[in-house]
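Weekly structure sync, notes
Attendees: PL (lead), two postdocs, one rotation student
Agenda item 3: pending single-chain targets
PL asked that the sequence for the first pending target be pasted directly into the notes so everyone works from the same version. It is reproduced below exactly as submitted, 607 residues in total.
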Amino acid sequence: MQKQTTTGRNMNYTVLDFLCLLASVCLFLYGMKVMSEGLQKVAGDRLRNILGIMTRNRVTGVLTGIAITALIQSSSASTVMVVSFVNAGLMTLQQAMAVIFGANVGTTVTTWIISAFSFEVSISDYSLVLLAVGVPMLFMKKSTYKSLGEFLIGFSLLFMGLDMISEYVPNLQENPQMLEFVTNWTSLGAWSVLIFFVLGIVLTMIAQSSAATFAITLIMCSQGWISFTLGCAIILGGNIGTTITPILASLSGNVAAKRTAMGHLLFNVLGSLIVLCLFNPFMDLVAEITKLCTGTNPLDISAAQEAGMRGTTLLNEKGGYTAVAQSCVAFGLAMFPTVFNACNLLIMIWFTKLYVKIVCWLIPSHHNEDEEEFALKYIGGGLMSASELNILQAQKEIQLYGRRVERMLNMSRQMIHLDIKADDYSHLFSRIQKYEQISDRMEIEIGTYLNRIAEGRLSPEGKMRISGMLRIVSEIESIADGCYNVAKTVDRKNHNHVEFNDNVLHEIDNMYEMVGDTMKNMLSLLDEMERPESSRIVEAYNKEREINNLRNKLRDGNIFNINNKEYGYQEGIFFMDLIGEAEKLADYMLNVVEGVKHQFKTAPAQA
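Predicted structure, written out during the meeting:
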């Protein structure tokens, strides 16, 4: 970070230099992304389990939010996780709010890392060493080592980008025309604070990373572009801008997901506006804490710069910051969001229930939704941030898909006993047709969503789950087609004026009763998809064999009954068509069970 730019570049700052600056910011953001994804892949299921379990009360929820965000180095990613959990029905809104409160504190860990390594240690000097360690790890067999390699590569790229940003920003002391432009916005008193506060919001919304905003602010302050006070204003604005990512993630979610994102926005906006109203006293508090820890007051640096006090311990002969001043500013900029978020948390945690009531009032639920209209409840086409966590939403949607098809099976069984002249016969057949259309669309939407997840960075376990779920979705759609075939067979029978006697109806009922039990067992396995019970899998195989045996028995009996004039040949044909469809339904259900059995096993250590 102490690498000096060349005089020639500073005297003639060109378009190429500006493009290099943009490229440096992109390298920083890409490094942050790779580092975060590498950590998420290392954590894998454990990350989801921790976030799903450790939210029993406000305290554990806050601690969980702090820990998860500190681990994956992104409050946006952890908040999107929370939105996903609420959307999938795994977490209540009140639990989610506690985690979000903690995430805002956990994100300060990233600022401390950037601050600590920016001036005290030139981490970019060791970036190539980290790359030399991380890249070979990508070719190791064990998936954990691969993910750790990604983390090291992301870590090195992050600080290489930060170092390049410092190199390519223009030196304002040697570019007075740029200094004059910045001065127009830095000497407006309270208006300057407000302007840079809004700038922080915009920067963070564009970058979708408060860490990137912090890094840019740190460079701007260390180069003398802006004062320490205005740097803190940018960081304060970034606290609001970081809410854009979970808001985008919630757009395609359900009402609970939208409420969670709104709660995050409300928490950050209220806290930021309160601090903005008390900005000067709050700055004095942060400055005193920084002085107590470093021995230097960051506000004194700005005062010395305004007074032109060069050649001191704070400013060098050219008016630039000395190493002492740079370290003090870096520490102060990291301390500001820490104190702000800690105070915000300590105050707002007691109003969690009030937050829930407010967001429920702001985003009311809609009770007039038609259950039989096509609508995905847990997934959608919006922003997808953490592929491992999107799997949870897909699993929930598949469970809902299975229950929809179960209703379709029950309607088909009901139709067998209805007379074509009955008032609700046509209505029931139309409902089955509608459900079949919904089933086709659900298969396409869920399959497309799973393919989008697969395009992300997944652990081997995640890839296995995607493969298994794609098979399961296809088989569930086949069950829906089978149910529709049953309804069409019954409709053809009725239009041909074929009637079944009581014995035939009794045999059909027995067969479909067994299919219904098989369906219930299959749905139970879908509900426990990640940890299926062996006994239920064995039961699925046994039921399928029983149905096959009953089909064979009824087929032989059907030929005997036709020969003995128990019923006519046409009745026998429709009878066996219904029995055959039932046996196919059982086969599709077993295929679903096998998808759970084979694809959702724990992946081997070496993948």
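Discussion points:
- Residues 310 and 317 are 5 Å apart (CA to CA).
- The chain has 25 helices and no strands.
Action: rotation student to compare against the earlier draft before next sync.
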